[in-house]
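User: Can you help me understand a structure? I only have the sequence.
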Amino acid sequence: MDESGPSTEITPAADSHRVVGDRVTGILEAAEEAAEKIREEAKQHAAELERQGRIEAERLKKDLTEDARNLRTEAEEYARDMRLAVESYATQHRRQAEEEARTIVADAERESKGMREGAEETVRKVEADARNRQDRLRAEVRMLEQRKRDAVERLQEIAALVQDVLPTPKRTMVGDLKPERQDEVGRTG
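Assistant: Let's start by predicting it. Here is the structure, written out as tokens:
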């Protein structure tokens, strides 16, 4: 075979190789086109999956963010409700304690007032009894002083009478016991 130039002569073997080669080339080209088409479809499919993945990721992100917001809101509401419940409980117990304190103070004031009134009544009675006793003692003292004055007067009268009957240097007991004469009585008296 002369390779210097193209030969116009075609042999059946060469023809069959050429046909086979053309077919193989056609198959390879078809395969390459199919591979290119598959690659394009795969790229498109990958791009679509990536787009859907982004969309799904964005949706999940929004859902999770919304769930987180909802949980935070619920937690804040729960915390607020608990705080309000605690404040209400504390307010209720403070009111009860204040009411109990007012009741205790009122009871103590009533008891104190009763005791004070009782003590004042006792003081009034004691003072009245003391005044009555003082008045009785004064009356008794006045009565005793009057009796003393009366007794002193009687004693003075008795002393005067005794003085009259006692002997004196002018008078003697013997002379006083003698009956008096009428004319002497007139002279002495």
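Now, to help you interpret it: The CA atoms of residues 76 and 82 lie 10 Å apart. The chain has a mean pLDDT of 82. Let me know which part you'd like to focus on.
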